[in-house]
Amino acid sequence: MEQMGIVFALLGVACATLFSGIGSALGVGMGGRAAAGVLSEKPELFGKILILQLLPGTQGIYGMLVAFVTLSQIGILGGGARQLTLEEGLLYLVACLPIAVVGLISAIHQGKTSVAAIGMLAKRPDTFGKAMLLPAMVETYAILALLISLLAVFNL
């Protein structure tokens, strides 16, 4: 029972990494399928379309950032894990949940929005700025979740 604190903290690290990473993989995959269709007809749009495809990948990066900070805070990256109480471990788990859950959901929705933006760009290549703004708006909520998770982890 004395090791349960570290177990729950590591569960938080795993959730932050896995869920935001899964969301990013799904979102980037959606964008990639749409990109391949457009690029087969308009290869000159590659650079702009690549940016739109990659936008949902940021949530996975945010999850990894929270995971690294948490691993550092609990001593795993420093060479030896701290002894955590059960309550401390649960607090780390809860601190990692905002980016885990919001990262998963926002990356999927950002991928769907990127698909629509890629379709928009295919029809009107001059609308790149507007097309990029649409999936970027979804990013706002991932950034808010990142901030909440980081603030919580740093203040435990």
Automatic annotation (TrEMBL):
<keyword id="KW-1133">Transmembrane helix</keyword>
<keyword id="KW-0406">Ion transport</keyword>
<dbReference type="Pfam" id="PF00137">
    <property type="entry name" value="ATP-synt_C"/>
</dbReference>
<dbReference type="GO" id="GO:0046961">
    <property type="term" value="F:proton-transporting ATPase activity, rotational mechanism"/>
</dbReference>
<dbReference type="InterPro" id="IPR035921">
    <property type="entry name" value="F/V-ATP_Csub_sf"/>
</dbReference>
<comment type="similarity">
    <text>Belongs to the V-ATPase proteolipid subunit family.</text>
</comment>
<feature type="domain" description="V-ATPase proteolipid subunit C-like">
    <location>
        <begin position="93"/>
        <end position="151"/>
    </location>
</feature>
<dbReference type="GO" id="GO:0033179">
    <property type="term" value="C:proton-transporting V-type ATPase, V0 domain"/>
</dbReference>
<dbReference type="InterPro" id="IPR000245">
    <property type="entry name" value="ATPase_proteolipid_csu"/>
</dbReference>
<protein>
    <submittedName>
        <fullName>V-type ATP synthase subunit K</fullName>
    </submittedName>
</protein>
<keyword id="KW-0813">Transport</keyword>
<keyword id="KW-0472">Membrane</keyword>
<feature type="transmembrane region" description="Helical">
    <location>
        <begin position="60"/>
        <end position="78"/>
    </location>
</feature>
<feature type="transmembrane region" description="Helical">
    <location>
        <begin position="131"/>
        <end position="154"/>
    </location>
</feature>
<feature type="domain" description="V-ATPase proteolipid subunit C-like">
    <location>
        <begin position="11"/>
        <end position="69"/>
    </location>
</feature>
<feature type="transmembrane region" description="Helical">
    <location>
        <begin position="90"/>
        <end position="111"/>
    </location>
</feature>
<dbReference type="InterPro" id="IPR002379">
    <property type="entry name" value="ATPase_proteolipid_c-like_dom"/>
</dbReference>
<keyword id="KW-0812">Transmembrane</keyword>
